[in-house]
Amino acid sequence: MTGRLLWASLTRRFRQLALIFVAVGVAAATVTTMADFSLHARRALAHGLAAFGPNLVVRPEVGAPPRLPASALASVRVVDGVARAAGVSEESLSSDGPAQAALGSASGGRENGAGTGGLAVVAVTSQWPLLHTTWALEGSWPESGQVVVGTAVSEAHLRTVLARHRAVVSGRLTTGDRLDGALIVPWSDRESWGFPSGFQQLEVRTTAALATSRGAVRAVAAAIERQVPGVEAQAVLKVSRSDADLSSRVTLLLAAVSLVTLMLSGLAVMTATSALVGERRAEFALWFALGAESRRVSRVLALELLAASLLAATSGAFAGLLTGAELSRRLLALNAALSWSTTGVALATAAGVALLVVSAAMVVALRRIRRLEPATILAGE
Fold it and tell me: What is the spatial distance between Cα 352 and Cα 362, in angstroms, rounded to a whole number?
Protein backbone atom coordinates (compact mmCIF):
# COMPACT_ATOMS: atom_id res chain seq x y z
CA MET A 1 0.00 0.00 0.00
CA THR A 2 2.73 2.45 1.01
CA GLY A 3 4.69 1.59 -2.14
CA ARG A 4 1.71 2.36 -4.40
CA LEU A 5 1.07 5.65 -2.64
CA LEU A 6 4.76 6.56 -2.95
CA TRP A 7 4.86 5.80 -6.69
CA ALA A 8 1.60 7.69 -7.35
CA SER A 9 2.89 10.73 -5.49
CA LEU A 10 6.24 10.73 -7.32
CA THR A 11 4.56 10.59 -10.73
CA ARG A 12 1.81 13.15 -10.00
CA ARG A 13 3.84 15.87 -8.30
CA PHE A 14 6.69 16.22 -10.72
CA ARG A 15 7.16 19.98 -10.38
CA GLN A 16 7.83 20.12 -6.65
CA LEU A 17 9.91 16.95 -6.71
CA ALA A 18 11.90 18.29 -9.68
CA LEU A 19 12.80 21.35 -7.62
CA ILE A 20 13.90 19.11 -4.77
CA PHE A 21 15.89 16.96 -7.20
CA VAL A 22 17.78 19.96 -8.60
CA ALA A 23 18.44 21.51 -5.19
CA VAL A 24 19.77 18.30 -3.65
CA GLY A 25 21.70 17.38 -6.80
CA VAL A 26 23.54 20.70 -6.91
CA ALA A 27 24.35 20.53 -3.20
CA ALA A 28 25.62 16.95 -3.48
CA ALA A 29 27.71 17.79 -6.55
CA THR A 30 29.31 20.78 -4.82
CA VAL A 31 30.10 18.95 -1.60
CA THR A 32 31.46 15.94 -3.49
CA THR A 33 33.63 18.18 -5.65
CA MET A 34 35.08 19.79 -2.56
CA ALA A 35 35.72 16.46 -0.83
CA ASP A 36 37.23 14.84 -3.94
CA PHE A 37 39.51 17.77 -4.72
CA SER A 38 40.65 18.01 -1.09
CA LEU A 39 41.52 14.31 -1.12
CA HIS A 40 43.53 14.62 -4.32
CA ALA A 41 45.19 17.81 -3.07
CA ARG A 42 46.35 16.09 0.13
CA ARG A 43 47.68 13.15 -1.84
CA ALA A 44 49.49 15.41 -4.29
CA LEU A 45 50.95 17.43 -1.43
CA ALA A 46 52.09 14.29 0.39
CA HIS A 47 53.70 13.02 -2.82
CA GLY A 48 55.42 16.36 -3.32
CA LEU A 49 56.67 16.41 0.26
CA ALA A 50 58.13 12.92 -0.18
CA ALA A 51 60.26 14.28 -3.00
CA PHE A 52 62.02 16.61 -0.54
CA GLY A 53 63.57 13.65 1.25
CA PRO A 54 63.92 13.40 5.05
CA ASN A 55 61.71 15.60 7.19
CA LEU A 56 63.44 14.77 10.48
CA VAL A 57 67.13 14.75 11.45
CA VAL A 58 68.26 13.00 14.65
CA ARG A 59 71.58 14.03 16.21
CA PRO A 60 73.27 13.61 19.60
CA GLU A 61 72.07 16.23 22.04
CA VAL A 62 74.46 18.70 23.65
CA GLY A 63 76.62 16.96 26.24
CA ALA A 64 75.98 13.45 24.84
CA PRO A 65 78.61 11.33 23.02
CA PRO A 66 79.30 12.81 19.55
CA ARG A 67 78.10 9.72 17.68
CA LEU A 68 74.94 7.67 17.83
CA PRO A 69 75.19 3.92 18.43
CA ALA A 70 73.86 1.45 15.88
CA SER A 71 71.01 0.58 18.27
CA ALA A 72 69.65 4.13 17.90
CA LEU A 73 68.71 3.47 14.27
CA ALA A 74 66.75 0.34 15.19
CA SER A 75 64.98 2.20 18.00
CA VAL A 76 63.97 5.07 15.70
CA ARG A 77 62.57 2.75 13.05
CA VAL A 78 60.00 1.28 15.45
CA VAL A 79 58.59 4.67 16.50
CA ASP A 80 54.99 5.17 15.37
CA GLY A 81 54.82 7.43 12.33
CA VAL A 82 58.32 6.66 11.03
CA ALA A 83 58.29 5.30 7.49
CA ARG A 84 62.04 5.16 6.78
CA ALA A 85 65.23 5.95 8.65
CA ALA A 86 68.89 5.81 7.63
CA GLY A 87 72.21 6.35 9.37
CA VAL A 88 74.71 8.80 7.86
CA SER A 89 78.31 9.77 8.58
CA GLU A 90 80.70 11.98 6.62
CA GLU A 91 84.46 12.26 6.52
CA SER A 92 86.90 14.43 4.62
CA LEU A 93 89.39 12.21 2.84
CA SER A 94 92.86 13.78 2.69
CA SER A 95 96.15 12.43 1.46
CA ASP A 96 96.91 11.05 4.91
CA GLY A 97 93.53 9.46 5.45
CA PRO A 98 90.06 10.45 6.61
CA ALA A 99 89.50 13.32 8.99
CA GLN A 100 86.14 13.88 10.62
CA ALA A 101 83.83 16.44 8.98
CA ALA A 102 80.68 17.64 10.71
CA LEU A 103 77.28 17.18 9.10
CA GLY A 104 74.69 19.91 8.77
CA SER A 105 71.07 19.52 7.69
CA ALA A 106 69.71 16.51 5.87
CA SER A 107 69.05 18.50 2.72
CA GLY A 108 72.45 19.64 1.63
CA GLY A 109 73.36 22.05 4.41
CA ARG A 110 76.44 20.03 5.44
CA GLU A 111 79.75 21.69 6.08
CA ASN A 112 81.81 21.20 2.98
CA GLY A 113 84.34 18.56 3.73
CA ALA A 114 86.13 19.25 0.47
CA GLY A 115 86.73 22.77 1.73
CA THR A 116 89.17 21.37 4.35
CA GLY A 117 91.48 20.19 1.65
CA GLY A 118 90.00 16.73 1.06
CA LEU A 119 87.23 14.85 -0.69
CA ALA A 120 83.97 14.37 1.21
CA VAL A 121 83.03 10.72 1.72
CA VAL A 122 79.58 9.84 3.01
CA ALA A 123 78.82 6.43 4.49
CA VAL A 124 75.13 5.55 4.51
CA THR A 125 72.89 2.64 5.47
CA SER A 126 70.66 0.77 3.03
CA GLN A 127 67.48 2.89 3.37
CA TRP A 128 69.26 6.18 2.63
CA PRO A 129 68.62 6.05 -1.16
CA LEU A 130 64.89 5.59 -0.46
CA LEU A 131 64.88 8.96 1.31
CA HIS A 132 66.22 10.77 -1.75
CA THR A 133 64.19 9.41 -4.62
CA THR A 134 64.41 12.53 -6.80
CA TRP A 135 68.17 12.49 -7.15
CA ALA A 136 69.41 11.43 -10.57
CA LEU A 137 71.51 8.27 -10.36
CA GLU A 138 73.17 6.84 -13.43
CA GLY A 139 74.01 3.28 -12.50
CA SER A 140 73.21 1.65 -9.15
CA TRP A 141 73.65 2.36 -5.46
CA PRO A 142 76.87 0.88 -4.08
CA GLU A 143 77.37 -2.50 -2.52
CA SER A 144 80.44 -3.63 -0.62
CA GLY A 145 83.61 -2.62 -2.50
CA GLN A 146 81.77 -0.02 -4.60
CA VAL A 147 81.19 3.74 -4.49
CA VAL A 148 78.78 6.20 -6.06
CA VAL A 149 80.56 9.28 -7.35
CA GLY A 150 79.14 12.80 -7.45
CA THR A 151 79.23 14.37 -10.88
CA ALA A 152 81.53 17.19 -9.69
CA VAL A 153 84.34 14.90 -8.49
CA SER A 154 87.46 15.27 -10.61
CA GLU A 155 88.66 12.17 -12.44
CA ALA A 156 92.29 12.62 -11.33
CA HIS A 157 91.36 12.75 -7.64
CA LEU A 158 88.91 9.88 -8.09
CA ARG A 159 91.50 7.52 -9.63
CA THR A 160 93.85 8.04 -6.70
CA VAL A 161 91.13 7.41 -4.12
CA LEU A 162 89.78 4.30 -5.86
CA ALA A 163 93.25 2.80 -6.20
CA ARG A 164 94.01 3.41 -2.52
CA HIS A 165 90.74 1.80 -1.31
CA ARG A 166 90.41 -0.80 -4.06
CA ALA A 167 86.88 0.27 -4.88
CA VAL A 168 84.99 0.47 -8.16
CA VAL A 169 82.38 2.99 -9.31
CA SER A 170 78.81 1.68 -9.41
CA GLY A 171 77.10 4.90 -10.44
CA ARG A 172 77.20 8.68 -10.95
CA LEU A 173 74.99 10.86 -8.77
CA THR A 174 73.50 14.28 -9.47
CA THR A 175 71.88 15.93 -6.45
CA GLY A 176 71.99 19.63 -7.24
CA ASP A 177 73.81 20.35 -3.95
CA ARG A 178 77.27 19.87 -2.48
CA LEU A 179 76.97 16.06 -2.56
CA ASP A 180 77.77 16.32 -6.27
CA GLY A 181 81.36 16.68 -5.03
CA ALA A 182 81.32 13.68 -2.68
CA LEU A 183 81.68 9.90 -2.71
CA ILE A 184 78.89 7.69 -1.34
CA VAL A 185 79.97 4.40 0.23
CA PRO A 186 77.89 1.62 1.84
CA TRP A 187 77.83 1.45 5.61
CA SER A 188 79.37 -2.02 5.53
CA ASP A 189 82.62 -0.48 4.19
CA ARG A 190 82.89 2.31 6.76
CA GLU A 191 85.82 0.74 8.64
CA SER A 192 87.93 0.29 5.50
CA TRP A 193 87.39 3.97 4.72
CA GLY A 194 88.49 4.96 8.23
CA PHE A 195 85.15 5.96 9.72
CA PRO A 196 84.79 5.91 13.52
CA SER A 197 82.01 3.72 14.87
CA GLY A 198 78.54 5.16 15.20
CA PHE A 199 76.40 7.58 13.20
CA GLN A 200 76.85 11.31 13.05
CA GLN A 201 73.13 11.65 12.38
CA LEU A 202 69.99 9.77 11.38
CA GLU A 203 67.78 10.95 8.54
CA VAL A 204 64.10 10.10 9.00
CA ARG A 205 60.98 10.25 6.86
CA THR A 206 57.54 10.12 8.45
CA THR A 207 54.57 8.39 6.85
CA ALA A 208 52.79 10.23 4.03
CA ALA A 209 49.70 10.76 6.17
CA LEU A 210 51.75 12.72 8.74
CA ALA A 211 54.08 14.53 6.36
CA THR A 212 51.55 17.22 5.45
CA SER A 213 51.06 18.28 9.08
CA ARG A 214 53.80 20.21 10.83
CA GLY A 215 52.30 19.38 14.19
CA ALA A 216 52.32 15.66 13.38
CA VAL A 217 55.97 15.78 12.27
CA ARG A 218 56.95 17.53 15.49
CA ALA A 219 54.98 14.94 17.48
CA VAL A 220 57.02 12.16 15.83
CA ALA A 221 60.20 14.10 16.69
CA ALA A 222 59.12 14.23 20.35
CA ALA A 223 58.36 10.49 20.28
CA ILE A 224 61.85 9.77 18.92
CA GLU A 225 63.45 11.81 21.71
CA ARG A 226 61.46 9.81 24.27
CA GLN A 227 62.34 6.51 22.60
CA VAL A 228 66.07 7.16 22.24
CA PRO A 229 67.76 8.87 25.21
CA GLY A 230 70.46 11.44 24.49
CA VAL A 231 69.27 12.53 21.03
CA GLU A 232 67.74 15.66 19.54
CA ALA A 233 65.21 15.25 16.72
CA GLN A 234 64.84 18.32 14.52
CA ALA A 235 62.03 18.75 12.01
CA VAL A 236 63.08 19.69 8.47
CA LEU A 237 59.84 21.18 7.18
CA LYS A 238 60.11 21.72 3.45
CA VAL A 239 56.90 22.44 1.58
CA SER A 240 56.21 23.60 -1.93
CA ARG A 241 54.39 26.67 -0.61
CA SER A 242 52.89 27.74 -3.92
CA ASP A 243 51.21 24.36 -4.42
CA ALA A 244 50.18 24.08 -0.78
CA ASP A 245 48.75 27.60 -0.66
CA LEU A 246 46.87 27.14 -3.92
CA SER A 247 45.38 23.83 -2.77
CA SER A 248 44.41 25.31 0.62
CA ARG A 249 42.78 28.38 -0.90
CA VAL A 250 40.82 26.43 -3.48
CA THR A 251 39.73 23.93 -0.82
CA LEU A 252 38.64 26.78 1.47
CA LEU A 253 36.74 28.41 -1.39
CA LEU A 254 35.00 25.14 -2.25
CA ALA A 255 34.14 24.58 1.41
CA ALA A 256 32.55 28.04 1.61
CA VAL A 257 30.66 27.46 -1.65
CA SER A 258 29.51 24.06 -0.37
CA LEU A 259 28.21 25.57 2.85
CA VAL A 260 26.29 28.28 1.00
CA THR A 261 24.96 25.72 -1.47
CA LEU A 262 23.79 23.47 1.37
CA MET A 263 21.96 26.37 2.98
CA LEU A 264 20.28 27.39 -0.27
CA SER A 265 19.46 23.77 -1.05
CA GLY A 266 17.89 23.29 2.36
CA LEU A 267 15.86 26.46 1.95
CA ALA A 268 14.66 25.39 -1.52
CA VAL A 269 13.69 21.91 -0.33
CA MET A 270 11.88 23.26 2.73
CA THR A 271 9.94 25.69 0.53
CA ALA A 272 9.05 22.93 -1.93
CA THR A 273 8.03 20.62 0.90
CA SER A 274 5.85 23.28 2.46
CA ALA A 275 4.13 23.84 -0.90
CA LEU A 276 3.77 20.08 -1.32
CA VAL A 277 2.01 19.75 2.04
CA GLY A 278 -0.25 22.69 1.15
CA GLU A 279 -1.30 21.08 -2.13
CA ARG A 280 -2.04 17.79 -0.38
CA ARG A 281 -4.06 19.21 2.54
CA ALA A 282 -7.27 17.53 1.36
CA GLU A 283 -5.50 14.21 0.78
CA PHE A 284 -3.89 14.22 4.20
CA ALA A 285 -7.17 15.31 5.84
CA LEU A 286 -8.90 12.31 4.22
CA TRP A 287 -6.20 10.01 5.55
CA PHE A 288 -6.71 11.36 9.05
CA ALA A 289 -10.51 10.96 8.70
CA LEU A 290 -10.00 7.31 7.76
CA GLY A 291 -7.97 6.72 10.89
CA ALA A 292 -4.40 7.22 9.69
CA GLU A 293 -1.96 8.54 12.27
CA SER A 294 0.25 11.57 11.64
CA ARG A 295 3.27 9.30 12.00
CA ARG A 296 2.22 7.26 8.95
CA VAL A 297 1.48 10.36 6.90
CA SER A 298 4.86 11.81 7.82
CA ARG A 299 6.57 8.52 6.93
CA VAL A 300 5.04 8.48 3.44
CA LEU A 301 6.08 12.09 2.85
CA ALA A 302 9.58 11.42 4.17
CA LEU A 303 9.93 8.42 1.84
CA GLU A 304 8.90 10.57 -1.12
CA LEU A 305 11.45 13.23 -0.26
CA LEU A 306 14.15 10.66 0.48
CA ALA A 307 13.59 8.78 -2.79
CA ALA A 308 13.89 11.98 -4.84
CA SER A 309 16.84 13.22 -2.75
CA LEU A 310 18.85 9.99 -2.93
CA LEU A 311 18.39 9.80 -6.70
CA ALA A 312 19.48 13.43 -6.99
CA ALA A 313 22.40 12.87 -4.59
CA THR A 314 23.66 9.88 -6.61
CA SER A 315 23.60 11.91 -9.81
CA GLY A 316 25.28 14.82 -8.02
CA ALA A 317 27.96 12.53 -6.59
CA PHE A 318 29.11 11.36 -10.00
CA ALA A 319 28.98 14.92 -11.34
CA GLY A 320 31.07 16.01 -8.37
CA LEU A 321 33.62 13.26 -8.96
CA LEU A 322 34.05 14.34 -12.57
CA THR A 323 34.33 17.99 -11.57
CA GLY A 324 36.83 17.20 -8.82
CA ALA A 325 38.94 15.16 -11.23
CA GLU A 326 38.94 18.02 -13.73
CA LEU A 327 39.95 20.53 -11.04
CA SER A 328 42.76 18.21 -9.95
CA ARG A 329 43.96 17.93 -13.54
CA ARG A 330 43.91 21.67 -14.19
CA LEU A 331 45.14 22.97 -10.84
CA LEU A 332 47.36 20.14 -9.58
CA ALA A 333 48.46 18.60 -12.90
CA LEU A 334 47.18 15.32 -11.50
CA ASN A 335 45.39 12.62 -13.47
CA ALA A 336 42.78 11.58 -10.92
CA ALA A 337 41.10 8.40 -12.14
CA LEU A 338 37.89 7.18 -10.56
CA SER A 339 38.25 4.26 -8.16
CA TRP A 340 35.97 2.20 -5.97
CA SER A 341 37.29 3.93 -2.85
CA THR A 342 36.71 7.49 -4.10
CA THR A 343 33.33 6.52 -5.57
CA GLY A 344 32.25 4.96 -2.28
CA VAL A 345 33.31 8.06 -0.32
CA ALA A 346 31.50 10.30 -2.82
CA LEU A 347 28.28 8.29 -2.59
CA ALA A 348 28.43 8.26 1.20
CA THR A 349 29.01 12.03 1.23
CA ALA A 350 26.11 12.61 -1.16
CA ALA A 351 23.82 10.36 0.88
CA GLY A 352 24.72 12.37 3.97
CA VAL A 353 23.80 15.58 2.14
CA ALA A 354 20.45 14.08 1.10
CA LEU A 355 19.64 12.95 4.65
CA LEU A 356 20.60 16.35 6.06
CA VAL A 357 18.41 18.24 3.60
CA VAL A 358 15.46 15.84 3.99
CA SER A 359 15.71 16.05 7.79
CA ALA A 360 15.54 19.86 7.63
CA ALA A 361 12.59 19.70 5.24
CA MET A 362 10.71 17.20 7.42
CA VAL A 363 10.93 19.56 10.39
CA VAL A 364 8.86 22.07 8.39
CA ALA A 365 6.56 19.37 7.02
CA LEU A 366 5.78 17.89 10.43
CA ARG A 367 4.79 21.27 11.79
CA ARG A 368 2.38 21.85 8.92
CA ILE A 369 0.94 18.33 9.08
CA ARG A 370 0.25 18.59 12.83
CA ARG A 371 -1.63 21.84 12.29
CA LEU A 372 -4.04 20.31 9.78
CA GLU A 373 -7.68 20.14 10.91
CA PRO A 374 -9.37 17.31 8.92
CA ALA A 375 -12.95 18.35 9.67
CA THR A 376 -12.42 21.95 8.59
CA ILE A 377 -10.54 20.95 5.42
CA LEU A 378 -13.06 18.32 4.34
CA ALA A 379 -15.90 20.74 4.96
CA GLY A 380 -14.29 23.02 2.41
CA GLU A 381 -13.62 25.82 4.85
Answer: 15
Classify 130 as helix, strand or coil: helix
Would you give the DSSP letter of residue 61? P
Cα→Cα distances 96→99, 181, 195, 351, Å: 9, 19, 14, 73
Residues 246 and 373 in one domain: yes
Residue 211 and residue 316 in one domain: no
- Picking from 238, 257, 272, the residue at the C-terminal end of a domain is 238
Domain, as residue range, for 351? 2-47+242-378
**Phi/psi of residue 260, nearest 5 degrees:** -65, -40
Pair (251, 223) in one structural domain: no
230 plus 257 within the same structural domain: no
Closest CA to 250 of 29, 31, 37, 26: 37
Q: What is the number of alpha carbons within 13 Å of residue 18 lying toward its C-beta?
A: 5
Q: How far apart are CA 64 and CA 211, in angstroms?
A: 29
Q: Where are the strands (E) in the chain, listed by range? A: 56-60, 82-94, 97-100, 119-124, 136-139, 146-150, 168-174, 182-186, 201-206, 231-235
**Residues 197-250: pLDDT tens digits?**
899 999 998 887 777 677 888 899 999 999 999 999 998 765 544 555 655 676
Q: Which helix (H) or strand (E) holds 182?
A: strand 182-186
Residues 275 and 337 occupy one common structural domain: yes
**pTM (global) more than 0.90:** no
